[in-house]
Design brief:
5-stranded mixed beta sheet; Nucleotidyltransferase, domain 5; binds zinc ion; 13 helices; Transposase_Zn_ribbon; 3-stranded antiparallel beta sheet; elongated; alpha/beta; IS1595 family transposase; 8 strands
Length: 347
Amino acid sequence: MASGGRQRPQHHTQAKRNRTFTLDDLYAMKEEDYERLFRRMRWPETDGEPVCPNKECKGLDHWWLENQQRWKCKGCHKQFSITSGSGFHHTKLPLPTLLKALRTFILGSKGNATSTLMKDVGIQYKTAFLLQQKFRDGLKHCIDEITLEGEVEIDGAWFGGYIKPENRKINRVDRRLKENLNGKRLVVVGARERGRHGRAIARVFEQEWQSIPWLREHLDRSSTVYSDEGQWDNLLASHKLLQVNHSEEYQKDGFINTNQMESLFSRLRRFEVGTHHHISGKYLAYYACDGVWRENNRELDDRAKLERALGCIMQAPPSRTFGGYYQFGAANLWRGTDDNPFAGWVQ
Ligand SMILES: [Zn+2]
């Protein structure tokens, strides 16, 4: 077993030196501190000095309107706030609430995150759920289309439908049955470089084999690819592919080619197990994106992680996640629709 399969990143993240943004730090923040932080994340190019969000203007001169708590651009006369045109564009929550919520989301427990968020920040469940989707929507804009190199592990994890993918062996049998191919059951395909600094990518597909063109594009031709015995054979035409037989003992032991993907997949599994809603389509893509962002920023200390996440969201375009969650019942909204910010994530 290669050494790369036994990395334990949680040791690293539990180190004291990483606890650089505690609750005490948060409580010590004054109103102006919140504003300074959000401004710096929104307009890093001017070190927090407001820039008109009107793309044709981008003016730097403006009046401060005390009553409205907004700026008015001297160039185009548009009014704007810190969050205008950002990933928080349609959010009415005050900045301290947004930061508390983001802290819980980024650094908080890994259980049912929506309930935790609701209790920690004192907002309704629906508000908390939508806010999380806005967070994920914003994080997506910081995920680069990277090409993985070296030793790369690929794996697929199935979600949606009525069969919970808790047991890998059952999963492998069930996913080939026709009744499970109803479009609600989708596979997240992930790839991750081995080793401590390994980077990850992921996408959502109906079948594992459909991911081959995407994998070809994002795995360097010189890389060595490790997989299970899934539908990956077509990668052999372009890549060195090492498939390992799936056996009982490997399953119990934690199969080497899934170890590196596990932190990404386990987040999705926990969500599916801990909720009454099936995650499918658009929402599955949200979680895949969430997993990739966390995976690729896992080495940052708490403050750096929180600031990077805030920067991603503040510089993202307005989130298109509104109240759709409660109208969204079927799986058929997930692909190709204009209002789906994750259309490219589901192929
Ligand atoms: Zn302007």
